[in-house]
Amino acid sequence: MQTLTVDLGSRSYPIHVGSGLLADKNLLLPHIHGQSCFTVSNATIAPLYLDKVSASVAALRHSSVVLPDGEHHKNLDTLNQIYSHLLAQQADRQSTLLALGGGVVGDICGFAAASYQRSIDFVQLPTTLLAMVDSSVGGKTGVNHALGKNMIGAFHQPQCVLIDTDTLHTLPDRELSAGLAEVIKYGLIRDREFLGWLDDNMDSLLARDSEALTYAIYRSCQHKAEVVAADEFEAGQRALLNLGHTFGHAIESAMGYGNWLHGEAVATGMVMAAEHSMLMGWLQADEVDYIRQLLQKAKLPVVPPAEMRAEDFMRYMSVDKKVLNGTLRLILLQAMGEAVVTADFDQDALHRVLSRSL
């Protein structure tokens, strides 16, 4: 097991990465401060791993909420199922929620914890690569709205993140690739050396080599922890973690939540951001080709849906959370391994990217 810390002063918490962690009650119980806890999972993950979590908390009062699986269920109606269970079980402010699943479960469980009785504790138990390297760390919680992704939510940090790499054995290949998009993102925005390592080891990652996956997860979490510690509420540099997300969220919203996986949309969004950066004179054409080929090597899409037009992108991008005072801000690449948040971008270049007239 490897451990690192998200340094937030009195609200700091550990991230543990290793094999068999879900069955280790000595890692989990210290982060549950009351006598009751409630696991939130989904219909895919619960049959696989809920028993392990239940055994780890057997000394406490415990029950579970099993949600339907899929991004299209990440909404207020599903959130209300968690509230109803907590109220029926008379959960109090000393209760703790356990988020067992991927990014959807983590986000919606975290938001339930942030808002139930005005805030209770929760623990992240991510079971997908994407959740392990991104959404489980940093305290972003929330649900989607028909008009925009993750537009309803709160910042609420977990007590702990337990990353059991054994859960990746049951992860579908498509979900594994989707998680690799967020791993590649860290190399693009702040770690060019890591980008080269990913290129050299992509076959091992796709083959689920334990050593390669553990290293990729740990290094990604290091980057996420450093950024969150420096900018918890996304007032500045944390927005860099959204490379490709403004374009990607537009794809997810326009195509219907779940039709494109989050990582797939982000991968295509990162290529679009790289193309825009090239038109700004910041990247060379061969660097954009390298990014495109690396994502394709990870078995990810690199071209937006054929049915989406420039006006479709702009409609959803106009309600992006990075819009300030009516002005759209984009995350672009000034160089490989160096990102910037800017509202001062070439509008014609953006139109060319969105209309595919490169």
Task: Provide a short characterization of the protein structure.
This protein has 358 residues and is of the alpha/beta class. Helices cover 45% and strands 18% of the residues.
Please describe what this structure looks like.
This protein is α/β, with parallel strands linked by helices and 358 residues long. The chain folds into two domains: 2-170, 3-Layer(aba) Sandwich (Rossmann fold), CATH 3.40.50; 178-354, Dehydroquinate synthase-like, alpha domain (Up-down Bundle). 45% of the residues lie in helices and 18% in strands. The protein has 13 helices and eleven strands. Strands 4-3-5-6 form a four-stranded parallel β-sheet, sandwiched between helices. A three-stranded mixed β-sheet has the order 1-2-9, with helices on one face. Strands 7-8 form a two-stranded antiparallel sheet. A hairpin with a 6-residue loop joins strand 1 and strand 2 (13-18). The N and C termini lie far apart (47 Å). The model has no long low-confidence stretch (mean pLDDT 96).
How are the elements arranged and paired?
Blueprint (H helix, E strand, L loop, with lengths): L1 E5 L6 E6 L6 H4 L7 E7 L3 H11 L4 E7 L8 H13 L7 E6 L1 H13 L5 E6 L2 H7 L4 E6 L2 E8 L5 E4 L8 H18 L1 H15 L3 H21 L14 H11 L6 H18 L5 H13 L12 H8 L12 E6 L2 E5 L4 H8 L4
Parallel strand pairs: 2-9, 3-4, 3-5, 5-6
Antiparallel strand pairs: 1-2, 7-8, 10-11
Helix pairs in contact: 3-4, 5-6, 5-8, 6-7, 6-8, 6-10, 7-8, 9-10, 9-12, 10-11, 10-13
